[in-house]
């Protein structure tokens, strides 16, 4: 029976905007390596496929409503690749996926760092490719504003080509280590890339051997047309953000069809929508956990979430509707959120409460049975190959997975009882 | 009594060019995390101040004599910051210093990654600032040749200013975590850098808290006039490359005087010349270890070392003198090596054998008593605050330190018996 893929998203120690105000949240855990290590080990004990860190290279939104930023937890974090390398030394099986931007990096560095993570972890590294959307990030890298979307994706496509090329610098058996003759490697098994394109001129070779997985996995999350093409051609895993099963099925079908056009005959890329789960022994208990966090949402922090998508709404009645102009023109990010606001006729407060519950992603409140019914439905009707679990608060969210969700998934035969392979690629069934 | 500072340089698993051909060298250990981990733990068990990784962002010398590169071990390695992060999770006390180039990086990334390493390691991170000297590196980053020295150092000086500014983004007590009021941090304790200089425009703030050491340590190795000024103003530790005690004393006095001009009243920066030690229970045993490795030097690999400094010498008689033109004009790298060749009237083979023994650095052959006499002389006559040990081969070189050198240093009261503080800064006595 086909198994569901499961990842755990660990950024900020929780995906509920008010997680840090919960009585059980330990102040400072979001920059405490040992806390991340313990959660990673708990996820590995449950045989999850991977842990994942989203990322941005700025404190975003430093120009939002007065005081909002200081009420938001998203200011202090650890750089995810550095953190994952440290976690590589503290775990043995679980996949390690970190985000890095193609807009603000150089392909040689990215190829080398992820190759190193793949070596260090014994074949468990994955790179989540993003193009970065905020102007705040541009301001940290000699620019006054972000690149336009087309330019970002043009650069991203070439960036990924270069990185994959560098990962092919050496054949697996290139290093002969022939002590007698003095030959360290076979020159016929070295491939100098010599890439010359519009954005990058990179000679290579990479100063690192071929990695245990052949190359680190590539993960992609962009839902735009260009993002889908990059994912279809290159990605091993796609993190999607669908809010409804219909939307998810359409995305799934589209992406697999595009992948087939690129000649990919396996089931890759695997599609793993994000989901935030509120659960408990009873529906009432699950609802109480949800309500407890919702009651802790600071209106300033709520408006700060919406700021990215809607601009400054602090002058508006929180219990009134969203300004009409938000629904006009081309929406580039947060479109799912705005569609929901329109469809359900939400007030500003209702919208930020809805967004806060899963940092703009999908969330579900229910017992193990209810939640697993939902996941199984998505999994078995062509909407998902698995899920990227974005817990509302950590480590509690992982403990809830262990206590409620994973036993029920296993009871139904939907999730593994042990790792099948030695590498992330093998565990994901990607050959 | 003042204690000597000791670091262990671990690149390539050994600083002798033929290390990998030694019967005891395990093929592939240079990309094996566990092997580095075991050596780091051995160094920590001996209370060494730090481990260190040099670095370059290319396979250097891809245009040297036919076949030479494939006989050189310096092709395959792990990216040092990624490796050190993994080692941070496997050690508790020892300092972790990795090299990163100011010519091929962006200050925001460097500030953030080293801050993260400092958090993860509990205050043990150091950044070795280099400007990169090879054209091969330029070819991996959209350039056809390296920047001229002046331009590199101008960029480096501003780069370090920006990184230090970003590390000051947050006061130590900025994060209030006030669950009741919803205030995550005190906005008065956030400092937006807003740097606008000739090379960099970086707004900040850094999306990471102030680190356990206040900021990661800064290490510098440049011996040029501009390099010395950067070191004098900013560095906590300087890795020098002096070949003689007289040269070392002059460098030491000059650098401490420059530091005083920058208003630095403590003993910083600490100056730690590199040294490769061949030792044993007797002088004959030490000499035999040296001879064994020297006998393994492949002429192609020997010429490849010299290639960087002398160009292609493969058409010359190896047992004849160096071409005269090498001693003309401005020498920018390897000047100590060429000076030695001239002073001692060395043949090409003698020069590469001399260079091979310590990858162009100083080396010494002797019993514990002889070696420690030498180190003590440097330490007590104003030539060094300690040493950066570049072992000929690992892990054997670290085992020799434990067996011979460290007991003798401790017998004379020159080296610690336990760590004094919790952070690298404290252990180095830098307050």
Automatic annotation (TrEMBL), chains A, B:
Top-level taxon in the UniProt lineage: Bacteria
Residues at which FMN binds: 55, 99, 153, 224
Keyword Flavoprotein: yes
Similarity annotation: Belongs to the NtaA/SnaA/DszA monooxygenase family.
Stretches assigned to the Luciferase-like domain: 31-383
Gene Ontology molecular-function annotations: monooxygenase activity; oxidoreductase activity, acting on paired donors, with incorporation or reduction of molecular oxygen
Keyword Oxidoreductase attached: yes
Family annotation (NCBIfam families): FMN_nitrolo
Stretches assigned to coiled coil: none
UniProt entry keywords in alphabetical sequence: Flavoprotein, FMN, Monooxygenase, Oxidoreductase
Species in which this protein is naturally found: Salipiger marinus
Protein name according to UniProt: FMN-dependent oxidoreductase, nitrilotriacetate monooxygenase family
């Amino acid at each position: 029976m086909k198994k569901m893929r499961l990842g755990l998203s660990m950024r900020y120690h929780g995906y509920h905007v008010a997680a840090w105000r919960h009585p059980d949240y330990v102040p400072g855990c979001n920059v405490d390596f040992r806390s991340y290590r313990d959660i990673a080990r708990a996820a590995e004990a449950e045989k999850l496929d991977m842990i994942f860190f989203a990322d941005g290279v700025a404190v975003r939104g430093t120009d939002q409503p007065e005081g909002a930023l200081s009420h938001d937890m998203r200011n202090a974090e650890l750089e995810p690749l550095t953190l994952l390398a440290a976690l590589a030394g503290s775990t043995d099986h679980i996949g390690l996926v970190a985000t890095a931007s193609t807009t603000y990096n150089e392909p040689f560095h990215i190829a080398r760092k992820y190759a190193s993570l793949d070596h260090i972890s014994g074949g468990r590294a994955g790179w989540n490719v993003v193009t970065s959307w905020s102007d705040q990030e541009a301001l940290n890298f000699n620019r006054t504003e972000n690149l336009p979307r087309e330019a970002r994706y043009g650069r991203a496509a070439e960036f990924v080509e270069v990185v994959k090329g560098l990962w092919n610098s050496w054949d697996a058996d290139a290093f002969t280590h022939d002590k007698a003759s003095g030959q360290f490697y076979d020159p016929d098994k070295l491939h100098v890339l010599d890439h010359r394109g519009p954005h990058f001129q990179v000679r290579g070779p990479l100063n690192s051997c071929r990695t245990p997985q052949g190359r680190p996995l590539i993960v992609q999350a962009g839902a735009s047309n260009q993002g889908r093409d990059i994912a279809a051609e290159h990605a091993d895993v796609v993190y999607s953000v669908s809010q409804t099963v219909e939307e998810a099925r359409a995305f799934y079908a589209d992406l697999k069809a595009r992948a087939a056009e690129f000649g990919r005959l396996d089931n890759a890329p695997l599609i793993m929508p994000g989901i935030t789960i509120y659960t408990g022994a009873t529906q009432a208990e699950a609802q109480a956990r949800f309500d407890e966090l919702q009651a802790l949402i600071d209106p300033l922090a709520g408006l700060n979430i919406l700021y990215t998508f809607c601009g400054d709404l602090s002058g508006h009645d929180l219990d009134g509707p969203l300004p009409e102009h938000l629904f006009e023109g081309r929406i580039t990010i947060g479109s799912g959120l705005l569609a929901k606001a329109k469809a359900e006729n939400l007030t500003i407060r209702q919208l930020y409460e809805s967004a806060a519950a899963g940092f703009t992603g999908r969330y579900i409140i229910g017992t193990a049975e209810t939640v697993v019914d939902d996941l199984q439905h998505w999994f078995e009707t062509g909407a998902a190959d698995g899920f990227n679990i974005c817990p509302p608060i950590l480590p509690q969210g992982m403990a809830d997975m262990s206590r409620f969700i994973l036993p029920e998934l296993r009871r139904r035969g939907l999730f593994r009882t042990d790792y099948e392979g030695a590498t992330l690629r093998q565990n994901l069934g990607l050959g």
